[in-house]
Amino acid sequence: MCGARGNSENTQIEVDHKDGRKDDLRVSDLNTQTFDDFQALCKACNDKKRQIC
After folding, report:
1. Name one Pfam family in it (predicted).
2. What is the pLDDT of residues 1-53, one digit of tens each?
């Protein structure tokens, strides 16, 4: 289920860092990141986010 669009029909779901700019050192560290630092997005939404971040 895409966290942005709310559907999953005919989409590829990807796991994405919520911190798209990667400027939070805690999130970048495998030892300190948490499940809540990630979100499920469909490929289309994740591609759009990458253009912005």
Report:
1. ICEA
2. 566 666 666 678 889 988 877 788 898 899 999 999 999 888 888 888 888 77
Total tally of structural domains belonging to the chain: 1
In a domain, 2, yes or no: no
Structural domain containing residue 41 = 13-52
pLDDT at position 50 is 83
Q: Give per-residue burial for 17-47: e unless 16+ CB within 10 Å, then b.
A: bebeeeeeeebeeeeeeeeeeebebbeebbe
Spatial contact of 14 and 41, defined as CB atoms under 8 Å apart: yes
